[in-house]
Amino acid sequence: MIYLSSLVKLAPMGLMAPFHENELDTLRRKHASEAAASAILARNMSHNIGSHVTPRTRLEDLRGRIGEFFLPKAGDPRYWGESPWRVAFDVLKELKDTLDEYEQRKAEFIAEFSTDPLISTREAWFYRDVVLPFIRNTALMDTLAANEGFHYRKADSPGITVRCFRQTPDGETVEFRPFFFPERLPAPRVESLRAREKENKGAPIIPYGLRTGGNPSVIHTWSILGIEHDVRVSLPGPVGEMALYSILENLIRNAAKHGGRRGDDNRNGPMEIRIVIREPKGGDTDNEYYALDIGENLSDPAKVVDADNERRVVDVLNGHIKDSIVDDAGQVRKQAWGLAEMGLCADLFRGQAPGDFRKGEKRLKVRPGNWEGFLDEKPENPDCLVYSLKVKRAWTAVFFGFKEVPEEERLRLRSGGFDFKRGSALFGRDAGGMPAAFRFAVLNARLVDEHGIEEIGAILNRLPFRIIVTGDVADTKEKEWLRGRGIAQAKTPLPFGNGRDHERSTGETSRWLWREWLGFLAEKTGLGDTPLALDVYFMQDKGRQPTKDWIGATETFNGEASPDGKPDKIPARVEVWERDTRDGRVKPATENRPDTKEAKRIIIDRHGDFAEKSGYRPSEKDRLIIIDKASTDFDALYNAALPDARRKPDEPGKKPDGDPWELPFELAEAGLLRVLILDERIAQNANREFDETGAAKKGFRRAVTRSENIAPRNWHIAERAGVYVAGYLDIGKPDGIESLDLAGGGWRHEQVNAPKKLGLTIRFDNPGFHISAGHWPGPDLRANDHIPRRMEDVDLVIIHQGILDRVREECGPAIRDDLLAGLEKCCWLIVESGRGIPPEVQEGKSKFLPFSLIERAFRGGRVAKLGLTRAVMAMPRNKSS
Q1: Taking the alpha carbons of 282, 286, 290, 292 in that order, is the dihedral positive or negative?
Q2: How far apart are alpha carbons 57 and 65 in whole angstroms?
Q3: Fewest CB within a 10 Å sphere: which of 178, 348, 784, 819?
Q4: How many Cβ atoms sit within 10 Å of the Cβ of residue 239?
Q5: DSSP of 286-317
Q6: Which branch of life, at top level (predicted)?
Q7: What's the rounded Cα separation, in Å, for the pair 143 and 139?
Q8: Considering only CA atoms, which of 612, 683, 602, 685 is closest in space to residue 637?
């Protein structure tokens, strides 16, 4: 990249001749646009959140809303006798935590946008991962347009409704419809609610605080009708969902302020936003994009607002979106900043950053729309405003270098989520053909032979960590190098091509990817031939949801055979457990399960009840992942999209070909993965006592601390999940050791061999590493063979950029660079920070995540291992240094 400052330095030396004046103007405009774009996003956050949301969501305000909706006074017939404070606290926590996380992620989105946007991408399910979290943020939805009267009237009467539809390739329009119900509701009642929701033609209701007025004291869960039609999209960055949220925020503010009516006009009902995602017409760019239309029901697109020029609302809006955000002098424009942000965020979804002036590209566009055509509705005023943009698809896998696969088969596999690219997309200088986001990269072995390990190593950061090489790699050293860099080498052939059954190869390809990847990860982590078992327990009897649906899904999963006709080894089985309603024992609820007595077990345990009451005998080789409502994994597991509810019965003797149920594979990966955390904030929290309902249970204590007399700390919970939090980083120097106390926050200038504080010490003696374990309180961790001793015993390291900065300041930049290089040679590496993309990351080749995604996995002392693994394993780096 050529910077304007460099050109200015060249001008007095008479070296400007190679640069035409137009090129200099383009650079000026580019840098001015980048600065202006950052200013626009910062100003709009101050306006939308700081002016409209924050003043109405202070504790007193939220307490008032909770009292208004949920807390009848004593003597009221509706009074249920529960502690009002307990109810208020639970609802308040839901409201405040959700809103705080939203604001944190938005701040990080703006920081990344201001430093190096689009350095990476993230794949996500469009409705369940992007749209639903926005509308579940009921404190935001209650206040964003409250000035104009659009707010909750009652707990089940929102002032803004957001509906989301999918138009399938065959022309069917399906709505995603969430419905909420108390956790303790019997399964027949849930099925009755589901049937009633299917017949409901009105907008789905998101209750305030996610609690219904009749049952505010009970945790609510939800189910989503139509979720089988959800699609995976590519988000512009680790917190790229905020690009869509910024569009929605500004759309809601514009509609409320300029749409022509107030929310307290009861004749018109609430503001309604409709989101429609569909395949674009005409096969746009080989189906690289989905088309996204967002409509609102308040504005009349044909209304004339500029009588002198006969310009309609739609014309004025499009004009503001097309206008440059800077004037000829390089100053940010003075009006329509909300529309400017909408245009900038729409550009991000197309992979275009501020200052990237492409010709012929379509930005966000506003057009007249019509409410008709959705379901069977016939609205009185069908005209509406529709904002249209494009969103890149995400792929399950991208296959590089497979030119022998026929075009017909490629097209069919593309429709199932698999893309094909030439090897030049990886090794070309511009690499413009790279896809946006994908979970697996599959490389033809010929690419290794043609380019060698040096060139392969140079492009690894541009791929997700899940890399599989298929075909014969002839050179033994190359094979060892691939294994050392965490790259799987397939042991079975591809499930498509060479006369294989084309009709079923889409589903088989997904299964093949997971089998090969998890088989490699099992060998890498020392599992060998030991089978892997997955145990899931939600503290319910088998007649409750979601346990009932999990049982049906796991029985189907356990019955699916691998290519050799035997059950998959990874995982060998999934078993759901239930609570006996008579005596409280925890017992198996799954029938026909394979015998896996010697298996390594990955146990999902709610409140530690499984460890306490199932007769479980703790083993150091097992993984124990504790969940409760405070864990961010809870929703992903408790409200999981389960396949049996939507899969059609299979023909006798045939396997299902649709997308396999990936959640067991993802949980297996999360359980196998060994993660080392080097972060001061996580280290400081690790030595606190684990504050959870099950912490006093003796069986649970034995399972996590190896002693029923030791109160577990957060470090123990992380260690049992396969996450190791470092307490000290020792740097070996010729004149001694510099020891950084991560929890204490300072350097200790003396040698420390084995700290008494619970945690790991990472010692770097350039170029080698050594890991030792502290063990207070509890039994000596040094006797635990499953605690890593070498950096090669770790699969993934997540390190805070602030630690690298402190090493540079104390030991010099050379030691910092050697430390980073040494980590990258041993394991996968993520650098994290909360200040946008640090300059060192921009100039280097490391992958990056914002701190909020890491912090989210450790909230409240819990370890959301599934969410953490999902966040890191599919993360590419789209830009070279």
Answers
A1: negative
A2: 9
A3: 784
A4: 24
A5: GGTEEEEEEEESS--TT-EEEGGGTEEHHHHH
A6: Bacteria
A7: 6
A8: 602
Distances (CA, A) of 706 to 534, 611, 628, 710: 21, 12, 22, 8
> What residues have CB less than 8 Å from 8, skipping those under 6 apart?
none
Q: Where does the pLDDT of residue 372 fall: very low under 50, low under 70, confident under 90, or very high at 90 and above?
A: low
For residue 107, give the H/E element and its range.
helix 84-115
Pairwise pLDDT comparison (141 vs 360), residue with the higher score? 141
Q: Quickly state the pLDDT bin for 4 (edges 50, 70, 90).
A: very low
Cβ(698)–Cβ(705) below 8 Å: no
Who's near 764: CB < 8 A, 6+ residues apart? 729, 730, 731, 732, 818, 819, 822
* 345 neighbors 244 (Cβ within 8 angstroms): yes
Is there a cis peptide before residue 546, judged by omega within 30 degrees of 0? yes
Residue 531: name the closest of 559, 499, 567 by CA: 567
Residues 6+ apart with CB under 8 A from 308: none
Is the pLDDT at 10 greater than 50, yes or no?
A: no
| CB-neighbour burial class of residue 91 (10 A; exposed 0-12, middle 13-18, buried 19+) | buried
Contacts of 669 (CB under 8 A, 6+ apart): 517, 518, 521, 869, 873
**Which candidate, 494, 482, 473, places its Cα nearest to that of 420?**
494
- Tell me 237's DSSP state: S
Residue 183: Cβ within 10 Å count? 17
Give CA–CA dist 792/774, Å, rounded.
19
Q: Nearest to residue 128, comparing CAs of 117, 120, 138, 136?
A: 136
Sign of CA dihedral 745, 749, 750, 753: positive
Over the stretch 590-627, which tens digit does the pLDDT of each residue have? 876 666 678 899 999 999 999 999 999 999 889 999 99
Q: Is the pLDDT of residue 879 over 70?
A: no
List the structure tokens of 222: 């939800």
The residue assigned the tokens 């015993």 is 793
Work out the end-to-end distance of the chain between its first and last CA atoms, rounded to an integer number of angstroms. Answer: 10
Residue 767, preceding bond cis, omega within 30 degrees? yes
Q: For 484-540, what is each residue's pLDDT tens digit?
A: 999 999 999 998 876 555 555 778 899 999 999 999 999 999 887 788 899 999 999
Q: State both tokens at 113.
A: 């946008």
Domains of the chain: 32-391 (no CATH), 396-517 (3.40.50), 525-630+638-662 (no CATH), 675-873 (no CATH)
Helix orientation angle between 505-524 and 663-672, rounded to the nearest 10 degrees? 10
Cis amide bond preceding 133, omega within 30: no
600 CB neighbour count, 10 Å cutoff: 23
Q: Cβ neighbours of residue 566 under 8 Å, at least 6 residues apart?
A: none
Find the DSSP H helices in 460-572.
476-484, 505-524, 547-559
List 289's β-bridge partners, or say none: 392
- CB burial of residue 131 (10 Å; 0-12, 13-18, 19+): buried
Q: Which pLDDT band holds residue 139 (cuts at 50, 70, 90)?
A: very high
Specify the pairing of strand 311-312 against strand 304-306.
Answer: antiparallel
Q: Which two tokens stand for residue 877?
A: 């780096």
State the average pLDDT for the chain: 85
Listed in sequence order, the residues at least 6 apart from 327 whose beta carbon sits closer than 8 Å to its beta carbon are 333
Write down the pLDDT at residue 498.
65
50-65 average pLDDT score: 92
The answer to whether residue 376 scores a pLDDT higher than 70 is no
Question: How far is Cα 105 from Cα 99, in angstroms, rounded to an integer?
Answer: 10
3-state secondary structure of 841: helix
Dump the DSSP string for 551-565: HHHHHHHHH-B-TTS
pTM of the model: 0.91
Structure-block tokens of residue 134: 């926005």
Residue 523 to residues 474, 519, 792, Cα–Cα distance (Å): 21, 6, 13
